[in-house]
């Protein structure tokens, strides 16, 4: 594994640098967001700017990760560890594969379980719609799309306006939020529309 090259690529959707693991809650959040996405890799002993510091106690870091994976993530995660030396400094590499049991929840400091997804280099709280999409896409039940006037109105709107959020969709069709969410989940699962999550908002576009 070329550690230097990976670090030069910088943090992103599937790569995160950690100087050290200080909190099971925080690292569980990152690991869960990787598992709910396409998988990812943690480089422990690396600063945010890419400087390699190395880890002081590899056993301690491994213990924290294992604890977070088993007790702070639900369903539990199965991290894969690798030790890489660079200039006599030890970097602990932790791979979190994409999960087949989505969605994974992580235990927050408020004692609640939340679903996170990876957006660029951040782990972002998933909306109810994204959680439903993750849940149903891993259950492979298949989605039967019924094109009612509501779906048609949405697609016509996207044809003109390019994007829409849940609130706008509710107003467009004069329907409640739960009904709107159900329609959006089905359309995302069937590949008709795409969901875009940023740190500030979530919106939908035609696929």
Rounded average pLDDT: 93
Low-confidence regions: none
State the major sheet.
4 strands, mixed
Strand content: 15-25%
So, CATH architecture of the largest domain? 2-Layer Sandwich
Shape descriptor = elongated
- Under CATH, the homologous superfamily of the largest domain reads Schlafen, AAA domain
Q: Looking at CATH, which topology of the largest domain would you report?
A: Methyltransferase, Cobalt-precorrin-4 Transmethylase, Domain 2
Helix content: 25-40%
Which value, in Å, is the CA radius of gyration?
Answer: 20 Å
Secondary structure tally, helices:
7
Strand order, main sheet: write it out: 1-2-5-4
Tally of extended strands?
10
Distance between the termini: 36 Å
């Amino acid at each position: 594994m070329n550690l230097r090259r990976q670090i030069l690529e910088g943090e992103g959707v599937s790569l995160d640098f950690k100087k050290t693991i200080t909190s099971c809650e925080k690292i569980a959040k990152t690991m869960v967001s990787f598992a709910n996405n396409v998988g990812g890799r943690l480089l422990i002993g690396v600063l945010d700017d890419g400087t390699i510091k190395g880890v002081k106690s590899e056993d301690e870091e491994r213990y924290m990760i294992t604890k977070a994976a088993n007790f702070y993530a639900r369903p539990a995660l199965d991290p894969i560890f690798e030790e890489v030396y660079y200039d006599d400094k030890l970097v602990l590499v932790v791979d979190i594969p994409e999960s087949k049991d989505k969605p994974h929840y992580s235990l927050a400091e408020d004692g609640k379980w939340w679903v996170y997804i990876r957006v660029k280099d951040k782990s972002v709280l998933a909306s109810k719609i994204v959680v439903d999409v993750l849940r149903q896409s891993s259950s492979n039940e298949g989605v039967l799309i019924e094109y009612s006037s509501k779906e048609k109105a949405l697609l016509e709107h996207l044809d003109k306006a390019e994007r829409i959020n849940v609130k706008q969709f509710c107003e467009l069709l004069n329907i409640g939020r739960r009904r709107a969410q159900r329609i959006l989940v089905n359309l995302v699962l069937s590949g008709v529309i795409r969901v875009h999550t940023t740190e500030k908002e979530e919106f939908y576009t035609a696929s």
